Task: structure prediction
Amino acid sequence: MPKSPWSVPVTEALHASGVRVADLDTNATPGFRGDKKAGELLLEERRAVLSGLQEKLYANGRSGDPRNILLVLQGMDTAGKGGIVRHVIGSVDPQGVDHAAFGVPSAQERRHHYLWRIRRQLPRGGQIGVFDRSHYEDVLVVRVHDLVPPDVWGKRYDEINRFERTAANAGTTIIKVAMFVSLDEQRKRLTQRLDRPDKYWKFDPADIDERAYWPAYQEAYQAVLDRTCTEYAPWYVIPSDRKWYSRLAVTELLIDALGKLDLDWPPARFDIAEQRRRLADL
Amino acid sequence: MPKSPWSVPVTEALHASGVRVADLDTNATPGFRGDKKAGELLLEERRAVLSGLQEKLYANGRSGDPRNILLVLQGMDTAGKGGIVRHVIGSVDPQGVDHAAFGVPSAQERRHHYLWRIRRQLPRGGQIGVFDRSHYEDVLVVRVHDLVPPDVWGKRYDEINRFERTAANAGTTIIKVAMFVSLDEQRKRLTQRLDRPDKYWKFDPADIDERAYWPAYQEAYQAVLDRTCTEYAPWYVIPSDRKWYSRLAVTELLIDALGKLDLDWPPARFDIAEQRRRLADL
Result:
């Protein structure tokens, strides 16, 4: 049997339990034995595996199975959330993807509870839902910038846990991914956006302002990991200085989650011989 | 200069004007000089071109440009609408895709005007919207099966034209694609769904019932093409017995539409030198 490219299953290597955000090596490639080239080659293979499993999930959803996957992506600007959508989610059939990006809440959204807009975007049966940012912004940017008083955001961790438990009980496999780059790597990536006219549109001067709050964000992320990493909705911490690694890691997390659903093709809900006869006649 | 693989631009070769649905050769490959192998090779190249253009559209949308693309897919069962989504739309970044499938209207949808659910799914600026079936079902299945009286569906053609003109004026480039397979080809594809356990889920006995209405559907499609093929929302008729051809053709239609938007990367809306200095300091 050929040696696995992983020394430790990715769900163990990246599990948030015990992680100290401030001490994280964002350049590491936990659990993976290979280098960039090996990682990129493997990603190509695993994208195909993911696509095959996704089709089964979709088929079951179409046949009434309520189960679905929700991938929650969190991370500072430039951490690579968009790249995950493009290169990982982009490998599966768009029909089976419910993608939602949560930016600054609109006026309408602000009139509702912060989970209102989230709940509306929960994936349907058979779908892979992707949240590019999420309800966690309500305990991250909101906490860092004092957008609501501490006793308001302070209650949200438990509320989020209850919300996620309800979704999990209804058939959603929740995979939460926190992507971390170093301050230096972020500077490199932001600089690239200033150097290349095809990247200007990705640059927002406010992203630089946020760099001053880095320690506060680390603290807020630490609280998120400490208080909302649950059995039914675990956090995985992805060192993301190396894009090839973060994409491979999230691909493996999705493959693992789909594998655990133990999906088969839905059985025929009609008499095959009868339908063959009808078809021959018509 | 190398010879183009197309003898006629695809927008001309496939334009619905003058098409007689009942006489259509669904096995043809209008305008394309090559065979299946050449078509499949070309598709790979053109998928990358489409993806590049789509990124520019998305970038402009993020920068406030309201323009977007709407691809409307219509066709009898097995015509290959799903394959277009998977293999054509699947080549672009999922962040830039608004996909909507319109099945039998729900109870809630039925309480509204038939365009209500359609309007809600119109693509946002920068997005490629994909309608898998659409408001045209309201003059196709509805007409064929007398779901509403003729004087009701009869008014819808003009109403749809007005609706589409409004959307076009607001910045939506509308591309409507009618995919046609022959009755024989449909039988082959339905048979395959009965032969392969990984395809059972795609089979619906009702699809066979619909075969008895083939001439009525052809007539209803003819009326759609005759009455709703407009300058601002043209129909293209895709012979779809050959999947490689239909996928290539729709890819070219999208590339053509994106090309006509004459997109450039959005300019920097900040002082680049100033942002470089700020970034060096922080």
Notes: Residues 168 and 232 of chain B are 6 Å apart (CA to CA). DSSP finds 13 helices and five strands in chain B.
